[in-house]
Amino acid sequence: MYECSVQRSSFAALSIYTFEKQARDFYNIEIFYRFQQLVKATERYLADEMEKEKVYVIYKSEEHTKNEVRPRKYLVLVDMAQENYMCICAWFQKDGILCVHILRTLIQMNKHTLPENYFIDRWRPIERKEVRNATTFIPAELTGSNNTLRYNLLSKCFC
Fold this sequence. Notes:
The chain is of the alpha+beta class. Helix content is 30%, strand content 18%. The strands form two sheets. The protein has a four-stranded antiparallel sheet with strand order 2-3-4-5, with helices on one face. Strands 1-6 form a two-stranded antiparallel sheet. A hairpin with a 4-residue loop joins strand 4 and strand 5. It starts with a strand and ends with a helix.
């Protein structure tokens, strides 16, 4: 039998941060690429620590706010004891992916790994192992004793 699989380690990391490598391992391909864009966007932001390892204000650098009428600032709350990060934009609560503001805060704190609870099951890859016959490359579910299923699938193709 022949099994199809994708090597996840072949996806290139754009940064040196461990959380990007974690995302490569935990997220499906599409979400990983979205996460990479967020990691790349952290370069445009600056962070000010308002309260030591608890409250951070994240904002775009001057160079990136030239054309904005009213530059925005984002408040990120950090609970180091429970490794909990919360941003006022609530992107993680809405989409299930950490926002650029939290990622920038992590970089500011020199913390490059994320707890696994920030990689939700919704965005994990689905294990799809397609088992095929080694000589004919026909999927295993279409061969053998499953003739009725095979007949139904083939008859739909020619209708």
